[in-house]
Amino acid sequence: MLTTILAVAAEGEAEGFQLLPDAAELIWGSVAFLLLLAFMYKFVFPKANQVLDDRSAAIQGKMEEADAKLVEAEEARRSFDAQIADARGEANAIIEEAKVTAETLRRDIVAKAEAEAAAIVERAQADINAERDRALQELRTQVGAMSVELASRIVERELDATTHQSLVDDYIQRLASQN
Fold this sequence. Notes:
Largest sheet: none
Helix content: over 70%
Number of helices: 3
Radius of gyration: 64 Å
Order of helices and strands: HHH
């Protein structure tokens, strides 16, 4: 690149065009540049550095704020996860409680049904016993009447009611003792 500039300068001098300034202009330009540099070093660079430091501090603050918000968001996520876990635990507890309640109800219903069945069986057994007793009593009455009639025919005389009843009861007692 430097060779290109020197080549262009040599061509410019050959054509009457000067690329480099005069020495006095170069010195005054250098002094002005140094004064400008000193002025900038004294007044501009500290302000620029201050602005850059402030900007850096602001960026650092924003990054710290972002980190804090990230930590806060992570904490909120953990809290949310914990709440979800609690809700699931509570839902499971409710389901378990419902299962226990359902099982208790099932047992109560089965026990009630068994009690009702036992009562029905007991009532049926009582009905059977009552019917058997009634049939037995009716049979006694019929057997007594038939016995009295048969005895009347054999004896050819009429027995009184108490004698009939005592004969019938004796006969039935004998039959019952044989069985």
